[in-house]
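> forwarded from #structure-qc
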């Protein structure tokens, strides 16, 4: 018998008015798999990721977690679902008014009643694993560099050991060394926690380090998905252009055409 996928999307659509972003996404992610989503800017990667944990509600289709449909569920079920996910957002999203320890342990401290001193200890331990000094826990987000904030966001995503981790461009804007540290952490989190991870990245070096499976979004659908080792030989021109970072190809030709359409 085939194993039940951890996450299974079928024919998922999402439009914002006339902007048809997701036109029928089909995608399967196995338990403990590390999937990386690639695709050009604005193609709908972040929207797709937010559909997974209920931050965005698709217009139609099906999303199953452990074989159970999550679309059309009530608020309470959605809340339960979110507890099973950890996520880092593309653009920060730390609480500016809270110190780092409280940012990192927000869920443990405020929702699960973990005491302050324990929460502080766990926060210090988790951010140390990410190469930040433990003393950082008493600072505020605005006092940290962009890369430090990204690591704090990562700490917050993994601290309560969720089953599924979603990382929206976790290494973009970081130097290659820090980016490498974060990649290793994503791989570790999966091994150590047994988590299923979904990461959005356009950094091909990073994709090669963390992905078991790669899926490319283009024009509202998954145009190719397969094992990371097959991504160079997908036989799909758009994937070829993206993976090799070529300036000329179907992705850029379409862009020039659609830009002209706006003139
Ligand atoms: N809340 C929203 N309301 C209206 N439109 C939205 C919303 N969120 C996203 N969109 C639109 O959906 C499309 C896809 O956006 P999305 O953020 O998913 O792109 P992306 O693939 O993550 O791009 P990037 O690589 O630049 O982060 C864009 O046209 C965007 O304007
Ligand atoms: Mg995005």
């Amino acid at each position: 018998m085939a194993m039940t996928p951890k996450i299974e999307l079928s024919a998922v659509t999402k439009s914002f008015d006339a902007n048809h972003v997701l036109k029928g996404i089909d995608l399967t992610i196995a338990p403990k798999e590390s999937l990386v989503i690639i695709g050009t800017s604005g193609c709908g990667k972040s929207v797709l990721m937010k559909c997974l944990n209920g931050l965005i509600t698709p217009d139609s289709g099906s999303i199953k977690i452990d074989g159970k449909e999550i679309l059309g569920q009530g608020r309470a079920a959605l809340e339960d679902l979110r507890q099973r996910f950890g996520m880092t957002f593309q653009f920060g999203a730390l609480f500016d008014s809270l110190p780092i320890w409280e940012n990192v342990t927000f869920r443990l401290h405020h929702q699960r009643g973990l005491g302050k001193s324990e929460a502080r200890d766990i926060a210090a331990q988790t951010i140390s694993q990410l190469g930040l000094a433990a003393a950082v826990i008493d600072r505020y987000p605005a006092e940290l560099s962009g890369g430090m904030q990204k690591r704090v966001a990562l700490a917050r995503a993994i601290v309560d050991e969720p089953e599924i981790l979603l990382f929206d461009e976790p290494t973009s804007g970081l130097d290659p060394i820090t980016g490498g540290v974060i990649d290793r952490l994503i791989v570790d989190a999966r091994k150590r926690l047994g988590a299923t991870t979904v990461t959005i990245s356009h950094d091909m070096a990073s994709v090669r380090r963390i992905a078991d499976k790669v899926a490319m979004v283009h024009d509202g659908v998954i145009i190719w998905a397969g094992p990371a080792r097959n991504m160079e030989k997908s036989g799909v021109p758009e994937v070829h252009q993206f993976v090799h970072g070529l300036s000329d190809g179907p992705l850029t030709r379409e862009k020039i055409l659609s830009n002209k359409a706006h003139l």
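QC bot note: The mean pLDDT is 91. The CA atoms of residues 150 and 162 lie 18 Å apart.
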